[in-house]
């Protein structure tokens, strides 16, 4: 990308372009025209055109996921009916001023990129220019082939690489080979140059450090999402060498195991063919190979044991540092606290509480509105008399009758009582015949 002699990419897909791209020729003619030399001529048109292209350039970079671009590539991407946007260089200059874009050379000059073969010249020649441009500002329109970097996209992809490492099996070791890390990040980094730029961003954030050892580059990551990486020391290099030895021994054991299996198959084939001597030689070779495998296994166990001890010592060191920090913090917090001061403080609190109780009692004993204090002994005598009266037994009263005074009368009882009355009335009539019949009539009406 953006390399001399390489064919530029084709136009951007229709879905990446605004609706007026194909429908409003008049507006697009205005947007494709060059910017005025001064914004003061017509600030409204200037700002409108700038906002259109700034949003389009940044959105295109994010959709493509590429952290690198250049003026020539963008011009051909935004080609419309054979016309190229004439003010795109001014737009890129504005994005450089805002910090949304950065020249690749300036970015590499701001970080130690000497471990990159194509970054040595940049690291040696660019620091002065980068310092001046960062202090005074860079008002130069970028060249067509000059590589520019999307700053925010670079930071996001660098974070993605870091998280990818943290979630992989490689994170069990603090140091990893650059080639292994490159294979791990193949899905994030489409090319080697982008991969190196992401590592430089992580190096700028002090989350990785890179060292070249015996012609091979090794990378050390910070432990934790927000930790800063420590410089690579002899222990890290020793751990890396042990890891390489473990890997080589494992590969050698695997190779010898296949060789022993092959000798066994050859011996079986020789026995079937009746070649006894050949079969014996194959079995001897198999035995020698198995002894070598046992020796390599013992060496591999020793290397793995050393690595386990190193990792355990690193954990112990981390716990020790945590304890030490805790003791220091505790000492700092207890610096002005002593037993004598604590006892004195408790005595003061007790004295204040006693004083408060005395004040409360004094205030409670004061008469209100000139009333004299009542005699406590008289009140107690009156209370005792009330208590004695309440404990006396109640006066003797007749028992409550349990018999019902007016029980309910049934119809049969009423009829029997009526019959008795009728009989009694008949007897009375026979004894006094001269009596008037009015009582009978009255009695009949009453019935």
Please explain how this structure is put together.
The chain is mainly α. Helices cover 62% and strands 5% of the residues. The chain has helices at 20-23, 25-32, 43-64, 71-77, 88-98, 104-109, 120-125, 127-136, 151-166, 178-184, 192-204, 234-272, 276-333, 339-364, 376-391, 411-431, 438-446; strands at 68-69, 101-103, 148-150, 175-177, 208-213, 216-221. The strands form 2 sheets. Strands 1-3-2 form a 3-stranded antiparallel beta sheet. It has a 3-stranded antiparallel beta sheet with strand order 4-6-5. It is extended, with a radius of gyration of 53 Å.
Task: Put the structure in a nutshell.
This protein is 62% helix and 5% strand. It is built from 17 helices and six strands.
Principal-axis shape:
extended
Residue-averaged pLDDT, rounded?
A: 79
The end-to-end span amounts to 130 Å
In total, the number of strands is 6
Structural class, by secondary structure, is: mainly alpha
Sequence-ordered SSE layout with sheet pairings:
Layout: H1 20-23, H2 25-32, H3 43-64, E1 68-69, H4 71-77, H5 88-98, E2 101-103, H6 104-109, H7 120-125, H8 127-136, E3 148-150, H9 151-166, E4 175-177, H10 178-184, H11 192-204, E5 208-213, E6 216-221, H12 234-272, H13 276-333, H14 339-364, H15 376-391, H16 411-431, H17 438-446
Antiparallel strand pairs: 1-3, 2-3, 4-6, 5-6
Helix pairs in contact: 9-11, 12-13
Overview features:
mainly alpha, three-stranded antiparallel beta sheet, 5% strand, 447 residues, 17 helices, disordered C terminus
